[in-house]
Records
---
Amino acid sequence: MPSDLRPDLPLGLRLREWVKNNTSPAVRRLLTTFYRLASFNEMRSALKFIAQQHGRETFRQRCWLVLRTLKISIAIDCAHRESEILTVIASILATDPAQDGCIVEAGTFKGGSAAKYSLAARMASRSLYIFDSFEGIPHHLEEHATTIDGAPTGFSEGDYAGSLDEVRDAITRYGDISVCNFVKGWFDDTMPAFHPPVAVAYIDVDLASSTRTCLRCLYPLLVADGVIYSQDGHLPLVVDVLRNANFWSDEIKVLAPSIHGLGIRKLVAIYRNDPQ
């Protein structure tokens, strides 16, 4: 066992820290991708995605999507698991072709998730709108200490920055740039002017304040069977927002919707109408 691992962290987190600090970005991405894929839940999610029909896509296309998402994770820094991405992709593929609605991503980092979603958006004949400052996390006063599982976490101004050129290049290389629309700026400045109907949205914004802005602007745009996924369900401050009935009633003017996985999973699903 390497001697520079922090003894106060669980073994899995200690190994991840060591890999992060002692390997090149390319090696780190490769090891991280295969480490995640080796887990039972990740493998089961991939096989389940391949086995099930989601929309009009073929079995071969589903196999190709799984392999392509893995290739993108090896090539680009991604802050998500493939099981989470495949869950969102399944919803994109399952959108009703007779109903209008675009795909929205808020917070794209280096463009890995956007590249993956662009492939699904193309298959579903949908446009993808990518909202990001392309400057990283904004200045904030939120105090993030641990996740709901007790793992240490925190966000500084400028974290998770990827330039617009980086993201464009990532999607051009590995995704489908033809379906993409880029909206550069802080969410408070850009989202209020956005009005197209939304079929599926994915928000990975880390901050409770940014989550509030995204939900306030995007939830009213959801089509009848639309869904918003938040990648930040592991952050207590974000969980507090999602659980706050007054936030939903006062700021969005709706009753608190059905939220699947809240307080349990990192990726939570917020439905306009509960599919159950």
Note: DSSP finds eleven helices and seven strands in the chain.
---
Amino acid sequence: MIRTEQRKRQARGEAILNNRRPDKTGGIFMEIRKTAMAGTLESSDAQITVEPGDNGIELTIESSVIHQYGRQIRKVALETLSRLNVENGKVTIFDKGALDCTLKARIECAVYRSNGITENLPWGGVIQ
């Protein structure tokens, strides 16, 4: 039982590491390789689109609650991308009142999809 769990964890880690590349400091970062989307435009949800980019993170936010929560949405998005070690890309958020945990999950999903990672996802392991 324990060995099976260890193998599953190793397989998950290998799937993620195969889609990352080392940076100059020896760390690893996730790269947005192709356009991908996650989420819906339903109430209390958000639709996230990620696209490849070269000039750091370009973040665009459209929200029905931008005046009340715009700073928090931006903070959550940038923290999530930072935890995934995404350094470059265009990220568009269409928010319809999503909670922070929903934003994190949608961003994480879009980044994984952009890398073609669809199995053995480390949900909750990368994002805290």
Note: Helices lie at 2-17, 66-83, 100-114.
